[in-house]
Design brief:
CATH class: Mainly Beta
Number of strands: 15
Distance between the termini: 44 Å
Helix content: under 10%
Number of domains: 1
Strand content: 25-35%
Shape: globular
Largest sheet: 8 strands, antiparallel
Structural class: mainly beta
Oligomer: single chain
CATH superfamily: Exo-inulinase, domain 1
Amino acid sequence: MRLRLGILLPLVVLLALSASLLAAQVDPRWKPNDPERPMPPAIDPGTVGTQDVPGLPPSDAIVLFDGKDLSQWLGEDDRAPRWKVQDGYMEVAPDSGYIHTRRAFGDCQLHVEFNEPKIPTTDTQDAGNSGIFLMGLYEVQVLERWTYSEKIYADGIAGAVYSEFPPQVNASRPAGIWQMYDIIFHRPRFSKNGRVQLPARLTVLYNGVLVQDNVELSGPTVQAKRPPYKQGPDALPLSLQDHHDPVRYRNIWIRELTEEH
């Protein structure tokens, strides 16, 4: 079937517009190598940690958990969270519910360290299971993958964008050892009439290895379904999942990203 030119041109323009919005744009206010162009702010980049001692966050990061308390978090129904805090980490208290940040976030860089216990079970959904939900909607899976990697669906293992994208490689460490996610998230963009202009996007480094490369999400995370987007706020709280397993978290910080550059 041959497309008429009047139909094809709008499609080409739409694709070009989408591609341009995905990439950073050169600021037309400045000439190349312009000495008058303002310098970016200087920050302390922080330090890289070890298994025993977490690193220090960048100086412009918002620290969401420093190993001491849950003052930056709320439980379900905005009550005080019931997760345990000890020895520099927080631990899921089974059946205590999800927790979410007091603050709302949209585009961000997120650092999370987690430790999955090796649980003697034959249920692959009950093996160090938890999850990190950007804007409370889009899940990066947490699951003890070393033992059970051959027994569960690919888009439900550690490093996956749950129900959508398996990780590119298996970068997991064995259960009981601290793991690390560095996540770059861009929220979806909507037109004035509520249509999706740009879908949400995720990049994930798992233990320093790229496992999700700027993938486009089809919508919010739901098990075994692909629900459509619904227009909502530009920022919503980050949440951590209670899946009944005593998963531990530490050294959680976030940097808010802006469209200015």
